[in-house]
Structure formats: structure tokens, C-alpha cells
Amino acid sequence: MATKANWNSMERAQSRNNVTRRVFSGKNSMMVMNELLPSAKPNLHQHHHEQLTYIVEGTCRFVLGDEVLDLVAGDVILIPPDVPHSLEVTSNTPVFNLDVFSPIREDFLTPDA
Questions:
Q1: SS3 label, residue 82
Q2: What's the pTM?
Q3: CA 88 to chain centre
Q4: What's the confidence (pLDDT) of residue 111?
């Protein structure tokens, strides 16, 4: 059976200062729409999940291990498990990025995570 939702009506959770996210999850994969304001600070982190990131709007600098990638709307990257990474907004407007995780990020299932 299909599960239907609409990003525009989903609750936004504050993940850190100047960053919000909306989460849509199944049992084995998860989509997360993030909004990062230009004042958001990069947050270098890593996790055991494979991550696909699609830049929906804005421009940003993505640090992925030893690589630095300048990304624009339409760009897609694959982040392997356990690779340190961060995103820095380089535009004067917010960055919207859509992340897909497998397996799901259990820590994102609670509103205050």
C-alpha cells in the first residue's frame, strides 16, 4: 500500500541553528528535505548510512572527506557510509537539499532530533 504525503504540509523540525528539516520515511529508506539559511554554520559529521543529496535550490560548498565540491541547484552527490562531510551555504538565499538515507536515520524520527 502506498503512503502519500506533501512536503508543504509536513512539520518542520529544527535540527540546529538556522537549519530545519522535514522527514518522510519508510522501513528501509528515508527522504529528508533540509532548509539551511545563509547564516547556518557547517556541521562536519559522519554516519553509517549511505546518503544521496540533491540540491533543490541555492548554492553551497560540500566537504566530502578530502574533497571540496561547489554545488548548484540540480547537482546530486553520493556520500558513502562513514565519510565525514559538511555543507556550507554560499548563496545569499537559503539552500534546500533533499537527502535520501539507507538504512533510515532512526535519530531523525523524533521531532527534537
A1: coil
A2: 0.92
A3: 12
A4: 63
Residue 22: CB atoms within 10 A of its CB come to 19
> Could you tell me whether strands 50-57 and 95-102 are parallel, antiparallel, or unpaired per DSSP bridges?
antiparallel
Q: Please, which residues bridge with residue 98 across strands?
A: 33, 54
Q: Give the angle 25-74-19 at the CA atoms, nearest 5°.
A: 55
Domain locations in the chain as residue ranges: 12-107
State how far the Cα of 53 lies from the Cα of 76, in Å rounded to an integer: 6
Instruction: Please list the ranges in the chain whose pLDDT falls under 70.
Output: 111-113
Q: Give dist(CA 26, CA 113) in Å, integer.
A: 18
Q: Which of the four CATH numbers 2.60.120.10, 3.50.50.60, 2.60.120.560, 2.20.28.90 does domain 12-107 have?
A: 2.60.120.10
